[in-house]
Amino acid sequence: MTRILTRSTPTIAGHARAHRRRSSHGRGLLVFGAILIAASPAAAQPDSSLPTENGRLSAEEIARLMDNPVGELIQLPFQYDRLTIDEPVSGTSFDISTLKVIPTFPLGSGSWRVVNRIVFPFADVPDGAGTSTSGFSDLTYVGALTPRESSDAGRGKLIWAVGPTLVFPTASEDFLGQGKYQAGPAAAAAYLGPKLTLGLFGQHWWSYAGDADRPDVSQSNLQYFWYVRLPNQWAIGAAPNITVDWQAEGGTALDLPLGIGINKTLFLGPLPARLSAEVNYFAVNSGEGPSPDWGFRFAITPVVPAFMLGGGP
């Protein structure tokens, strides 16, 4: 189950192997706390051409800025994923639940900025004995360097970012993590059009230290995203995660989902936010043991334009 557990972080990719070897853990459901983040006063200034409503960015403009994965916003997504896993040996299925708190914030001034993304995952995983293990999983960090100015591409813009990605063995239970320090490259690229957003966000990790009794890690995660903007700040699209475990039992294991979803950008009082729901069907599964069949994702993402914490333009 290791390669199944955390689709958008490498931690889950390590749990399939552990699930097949272990069945003795049991814990209750977890409760998560709030995550507070602060941004540098040197954060980016807004484009003076952005439309405003009563002196603030409009919901339409917030929606457009949120489509940029390395943009000018401080975001705090709360993302809930539920995966239905098929067990080929017994012919049964079970569910894995993961809550991720993902503070994302830009730092820097001048013509470049670093977009920081930290994934705090909390997982609830059945152990095969009628109980489950719940707790904190392995933490992931990405620091993506990106130019402040995007490039023109027809009627839209092209953006890109590159940087390191790191995994830390912070799991509260061995069953919920891989026990390895990991590092590797990350890169993102996207086309931001008037009505269409298309992009890729890829990461790869190799283990370099950690528990010597745990398997070495070489795994990749490629998130593709597409969105079509609709009137009144609605959009349809999806952002599934393709995962590859290069050292899975029985050879390389690939999970490739196809997704569809809907989201809405709005104001919750004075705070802009995006609400989203998405369903994924795993059209391709390879590798031995349990494999994902369906995935459901729900998220709420409050945002703050970075310049608002820097004293304004």
Structural summary, described in words:
The chain is mostly beta strands and 313 residues long. It has one domain: Porin. It is built from two helices and 21 strands. The protein has helices at 15-21, 59-66; strands at 2-3, 13-14, 52-53, 56-57, 73-75, 78-87, 92-101, 104-107, 112-126, 132-136, 139-147, 151-153, 156-168, 180-192, 196-210, 218-229, 234-238, 241-245, 253-268, 271-285, 291-305. The longest helix is centred in the first third of the chain and has 8 residues, at 59-66.
Secondary structure layout plus pairing:
Layout (H helix, E strand, L loop, with lengths): L1 E2 L9 E2 H7 L30 E2 L2 E2 L1 H8 L6 E3 L2 E10 L4 E10 L2 E4 L4 E15 L5 E5 L2 E9 L3 E3 L2 E13 L11 E13 L3 E15 L7 E12 L4 E5 L2 E5 L7 E16 L2 E15 L5 E15 L8
Antiparallel strand pairs: 1-2, 3-4, 5-21, 6-7, 6-21, 7-9, 8-9, 9-10, 9-11, 11-13, 12-13, 13-14, 14-15, 15-16, 16-17, 16-18, 17-19, 18-19, 19-20, 20-21
The first-level CATH class is given as Mainly Beta
Shape: globular
CATH superfamily: monomeric porin ompg
Return the CATH architecture.
Answer: Beta Barrel
Structural class: mainly beta
